[in-house]
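Continuing the series of single-chain predictions for the mutant panel. This is the parent chain; the variants come on the following pages.
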Amino acid sequence: MFRQRIVLASAASLACTLLLAACGSSTDNASSASPGNAAPVATASSDPATSAPADSGDSGSGGMATTTMLMAKAMKGMGSVVTDDKGMTLYRSDMDQATPSMSMCTGDCAKTWMPVMAQDSVQTMGVEKSLLGSVNRSDGMKQLTLGGWPLYRYMGDTKAGQMNGQGKDKMWFAVTPAGKKSAMTG
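Parent structure:
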């Protein structure tokens, strides 16, 4: 069952890539500064209705996720959190570090908490572009960072808007548009 999902996700990702290549892009890209030693990621703001989604795939060290956009979404009781182009909540981990950027989630961890891989161009909506960057992971992949913190998608979130990873193991938290930990707002 899991292998079928990987094959389907890989096929969807390939289809999206081919579609994006065929359509081209009319958006201007601009490099952004980023905190710590994270490498900058080209970004552009645009309307999410015009952005084509990318899907998750599989890398040799576990799962991975990709996105073409980071969006700030108001979540009941949580304030504003960052989601990907599919509306899936993005997380950061207390075991990582922001300065310099470093991801400690590898192996089995990366199967549950899928690293969000850096794309050539990531658009933003309600997220400060200057806070975006990337970090080279130990597996050689480039992971997207926000405020220096590596970003992840949680396997336990199966629908847009879910936050099942919030507070998990007292070290995983939805990320705010400023790259901070999200906390209950009462």
